TrEMBL record:
This is Glucan 1,4-alpha-glucosidase. Residues 1-27, 290-320 are annotated as: Disordered. InterPro entries: 6-hairpin_glycosidase_sf, 6hp_glycosidase-like_sf, DUF7997. It comes from the Archaea. SUPFAM superfamilies: Six-hairpin glycosidases. Pfam families: DUF7997. Gene3D superfamilies: 1.50.10.10. Residues 2-64 form the DUF7997 domain. Residues 16-27 have a biased composition (Basic and acidic residues).
């Protein structure tokens, strides 16, 4: 096992490999690290890793895949050619082209094949400080998707397949109530552990981050306006509109819920702003998308109470 943080800061060196039965408890036996013995041949060795799902790929199939990769990529030149194929094609005319390429490469490294992105690498093997960021938060993912959509429109980056993947996964991960959960596993969109899933738990709905649903709606509406079409998009937007309406209080602003920092429950300017953005995007790009007649009592086609000083919306949705 790797050195712990106290050991890293200790003036005395840490002897590795350590004795696995050295009177240590389970919290130091569990980590994100794997230690192997790699024999050298003629002063060289090659180490490769392959992440698989045991439900989809058995051990022998994974080993066969690794053996095939080692046969194909057995020289530095072959590895360089393979790495070059992962570089994104960006037109030479794009301003600050190398920066754009670097940004897109970072996003691609954070993305699963589904298109969903992890919040960040888990740099802390003991999860003592990072909290675990190998999940997809819909707030982060949808905002990134929106920025990519707008950048693609301005710069011509050719990212239609990225936009479609994101839209498809948002459609697939929407809950039955029209909202999106706290966070999911990026590789398949499955529900991940979280502390803001009140709408799918018993009890009050306070521990729900309504701004996440607002961010997803804003992206899906803009993607629709940009010509991105995936199965179920219209129904998803209609159900999402119902969900958004159901989380409006009588004064036209979002009900009490968790904030974006996940440390408080209340009524927040940021949440209100995401609602405004979602309604505005639907008004612009959601022609034909309508909430169901059985939608929230908070939605009646009238104006939203509130003014610019408190971030309230100025108009309630009528007919989009």
């Amino acid at each position: 096992l790797p050195a712990t943080f106290p050991e890293l800061l200790d003036d005395a060196p840490t002897d590795l490999p350590r004795d696995r039965d050295g009177d240590r408890y389970e919290e130091e036996r569990l980590s994100g690290e794997v230690i192997v013995d790699a024999p050298f041949e003629d002063g060289e060795t090659t180490v490769g890793t392959l992440l698989t799902d045991r439900a989809e790929t058995d051990r022998q199939a994974a080993r066969d895949r690794l053996a095939s990769l080692f046969d194909e990529l057995d020289t530095p030149e072959a590895l360089a050619v393979a790495a070059a194929k992962t570089t994104l094609e960006v037109p030479d005319s794009v301003p600050e082209r190398q920066s754009v390429v670097a940004d897109l490469r970072v996003l691609s490294l954070l993305s699963a094949e589904t298109g969903l992105r992890i919040a960040g690498p888990d740099f802390d093997p003991y999860y003592e400080h990072s909290g675990g960021y190998g999940y997809t938060w819909f707030r982060d993912d949808a905002e990134i998707s929106t920025f990519l959509l707008e950048s693609d429109h301005r710069l011509g980056l050719g990212l239609d397949d990225w936009h479609e993947r994101s839209a498809r996964m948002y459609v697939e991960t929407q809950r039955a109530d029209g909202a999106w959960p706290h966070r999911v596993w990026p590789r398949n969109g499955g529900l991940a552990p979280g502390w803001a899933n009140a709408r799918i738990e018993d009890g009050p709905d306070v521990d729900y981050q309504a701004d996440q649903t607002g961010s997803v709606i804003a992206y899906l509406a803009r993607a629709r306006g940009a010509g991105i079409d995936v199965p179920g998009l219209e129904t998803t937007l209609a159900d999402a509109l119902d969900s958004l309406d159901s989380t409006l209080a009588d004064d036209g602003r979002p009900v009490v819920c968790q904030n974006a920092w996940e440390d408080s429950a209340g009524r927040f300017t940021h949440t209100t702003a995401t609602f405004l953005e979602a309604y505005a995007a639907l008004a612009r790009h959601g022609a034909g998308v309508e909430a169901s007649p059985a939608g929230s009592d908070a939605m009646d086609g009238e104006t939203l109470d509130g003014d610019a000083s408190n971030g309230g919306a100025t108009e309630r949705r009528a007919d989009l």
